[in-house]
Amino acid sequence: MNTTISRRVGFATAALALGFGLTACSSSDDDSSSDSSSEPSASMTTEAMASGPFGAGCEAVPTSGEGSVDGMADDPVATAASNNPLLTTLVKAVTAADLGDTLNSAEALTVFAPTNDAFAKIPAADLDALLADKDALTKVLTHHVVEGEIGPDEIAAEHTTLAGDTITVEGSGEEFSVGESNVICGDVQTANAKVYVVDSVIMP
């Protein structure tokens, strides 16, 4: 199983190497009035979408240093996560599955990153067993990763994961969920990935 998953992750990474419109309507007869009111609105909405990280969970992210939002933007995703104190269990899992280099070397990814508290929801014995089973762990972790850097305006959709299955993101604006998991800090940029921090582990 590990070989198959590893190949699938490898193929997905190779594919990455090769490879968000608003309609404003007005019932006013005054064309100039309509243009002046709709176009700035579209512009402001686009700027709001691209304004960076959102969500109450972002308050827990360090405000300075390599683990801060600005600091994470400088490093590839696995390295960036390793600097963030909210994601130490995730980093432990990625290391156990030998996925660090794969994630860091990918050209563009979207990662749903469970916090330490998310992993703590799993009974300790079950979590220990998962961390010890490299095949199962790889499947769970790659289930959290999607090809391409997907912004908030396109994230609500069904996505194929690097595990070869699918996840469905629902919501809009600054509120998104993936099954029973909620995005608590979204649109965090790293050097090669968009990161959406989630409050539960997303099981395949």
TrEMBL record:
One of its GO terms (molecular function) is cell adhesion molecule binding. PROSITE patterns: FAS1, PROKAR_LIPOPROTEIN. Residues 25-76 are annotated as: Disordered. Residues 74-202 form the FAS1 domain. Keywords: Lipoprotein, Signal. The keyword Cell membrane does not apply. One of its GO terms (cellular component) is extracellular space. Gene3D superfamilies: FAS1 domain. Residues 39-48 have a biased composition (Polar residues). Residues 1-26 form the signal peptide. This is Lipoprotein. It holds the Pfam family Fasciclin. It comes from Aeromicrobium flavum. It comes from the Bacteria. One of its GO terms (biological process) is extracellular matrix organization.
